[in-house]
Design goal:
globular; 7-stranded mixed beta sheet; alpha/beta; 9 helices; Rossmann fold
Length: about 260
């Protein structure tokens, strides 16, 4: 499938459309920290940081410096203006060309990024290059062999099929990084809250900030929103929208071991 250009439309809606409750961001930080070394500070690469929705929190959690590397100029500009932090630097770059020195990072986060990367072997080599021995890579991804139950898929019939084609399997990712010396330490399903009600979830979905919408036809999208809005109208007692999210943890072998 062709890649998505975030500079065309998505940059304008991403921050609001993909906003998470502060409690969910805090949960992710706790989860990330539980899979990393305890010493602080740690140097962190937020690879494909987008509008910086996690980048400042990474600085608060790990001490920094934190480098938010983002290829979309417009996404990066929003991050600079809305997600600044004294220990965060936003840099022009990509998974194929990371603008950091060899062995300069203790931790690399890829949060829903890997499926956007065209040359994944090159990206894996770049990540291994900037990572220090013993460093970790945290890959938050949907995996084609572990598709979660997502509420919005109930209304957009082809969305799950699209995502099965977009996302790699766990074994594909593990094999990819094993080739550059990174090995699996953990695979964890994290229960998260996306919104406090279906109405809140639908409001954000209407922005089409999820890149899957770029692969649906306009007819499919309109039909899906009609069904979703009908479900919102029928929800008399709001219920939180929750799901599970996979986190794959990899480690670069320590040269001393």
């Amino acid at each position: 499938m062709d890649g998505v250009d975030y500079d065309q439309r998505l940059h304008a809606v991403y921050a609001h459309g993909r906003e998470l409750p502060s409690s969910t961001v805090a949960l992710w930080m706790t989860t990330f920290a539980s899979h990393c070394r305890s010493e602080r500070p740690l140097s962190v690469l937020d690879l494909g940081c987008g509008t910086g929705r996690f980048t400042p929190a990474l600085a608060d959690t790990f001490g920094g410096p934190v480098y938010g590397v983002e290829p979309s100029e417009r996404m990066r500009r929003i991050a600079e203006h809305t997600a600044g932090h004294s220990r965060v630097a936003y840099l022009d770059g990509s998974a194929h060309h990371i603008p950091l020195a060899d062995r300069s990072c203790d931790l690399v986060l890829m949060f829903l990024v890997l499926h956007h990367v065209a040359d994944q072997p090159q990206a894996a080599a770049e990540i291994a290059r900037v990572l220090r021995p013993g460093g970790r890579v945290l890959i938050r991804s949907t995996f084609s062999d572990r598709m979660p139950a997502l509420r919005w898929h109930d209304y957009f019939a082809r969305a799950a099929e699209v995502e099965r084609q977009l996302f790699p399997s766990v074994d594909q990712v593990v094999d990819l990084f094993a080739g550059v010396g990174l090995h699996q330490r953990a695979l964890r399903a994290v229960s998260i809250r996306l919104a406090e009600s279906l109405a809140e979830h639908a409001e954000r979905l209407h922005l089409r900030a999820i890149s899957t919408f770029e692969y649906l036809t306009e007819e499919e999208t309109i039909r899906g929103f009609v069904a979703l809005d009908e479900a919102v109208a029928q929800e008399t007692t709001p219920r939180p929208v929750e799901t599970t999210s996979d986190l794959l943890v990899l480690e670069l072998a320590d040269a001393g071991n």
